[in-house]
Amino acid sequence: MTRTPAPASAPDGGPDGVLSRLLRGPDSALGHVAVPVGAVLAALVVGGVLMAVEGVAPLSAYGEVVLGVFGRTRGLIDTAVMATPLILLGLGIAVAYRARVFTIGAEGQYIAGALAGTAWVTVGPPLPGFLLLVSGLAVAVLTGAAWAGITAWMLARFGASVVITSLLLNYVAAAGLAWAVRVGIRDPGSFTPQSRALGDAALPDIPGTGIHLGFFLALLAVPALAAVLRRTRFGFRVEVLGANPEVLAVNEARPARTRLAVLALAGAFAGLAGFVEVAGVTERMTPAFATGYGFTAIIVALLGRLRPLGVLVAALLLAGLTVGFDEAERVFIIPSTTVGVIQALIVVFFVAGDALSRRGRR
Questions:
Q1: 296-to-90, 233, 274, 292 alpha-carbon distances in Å
Q2: Which residues share a beta bridge with 205?
Q3: Rounded to an integer, what distance in angstroms lies between the CA atom of residue 358 and that of residue 346?
Q4: 346 with 302: CB under 8 angstroms?
Q5: Is the dihedral of CA 353, 357, 360, 362 positive or negative?
Q6: What is the pLDDT of residues 157-186, one digit of tens each?
């Protein structure tokens, strides 16, 4: 059995160094599972205390959250639909972070992919419904990959930080969305800024489930990516790049090309997530399309320990929390920001748990 070499540390002090230390994780297999689970439980406990301060009985509220997800069919459907973009985005981020390429640009790639796919199917050449959908998906994937490729090019050409450039590109994409729905692809028959409806390019539902086909695509992507990472040369290079780029160079594989491929793959997943969200849920783009899924997916990837199956579980968990709290808010007076606070607490306890785990092993 081969062993993966220990990850090389990024320079301390900068954001890359912080992420590198975070992704190093505990030394034991138990710690890899116990820390995320403990972080979620601790965040729920603190969230319960905050709700108690607000005068809400936390156990009753959490009971309503569980009932909101598992007590009705609609709750399960909403959870699956909300988890779909998080799964796809989380998979892309997981690949990049396994290679220690710390992109923060999933939100921008998500918007860019959705915008390009929507533009193609609404103002592009007329095509039959199935071809329109497939070509829209392809355009979104390519656009997401190209958007991420800008970051890779700036890294290779100027040595620019992936964290900074990918983060700034999110704002460029958001500005592009604001312009496009008001001018570029605006529905001329609407009084509000929005694109035309996708019409025949909308994703159909999985028969008998009420869940759009994008969820099925996301589920398929999990084992597919796991197989790629485990069984292909590309997956091996991703692991080696994350462990020690110099070893990759010694084996005549250019680290720059592998970083470009990793970022392009992450962008492709993000672009796919964006168009799937439009074609399966909103069916048109509005200024409110940028909902922060790209940032939430970073939490998903971290909680999932950068493993495809872990990403799936984490995405379903966070989506279920959001759906459940939406239901609980109808019964209890709970601030709408409660889910965001709990998600932030999960990250805080996750980082603290990893740090304590490593300290305990010294």
A1: 9, 30, 14, 6
A2: 212
A3: 18
A4: no
A5: negative
A6: 998 999 999 999 999 999 999 999 999 899
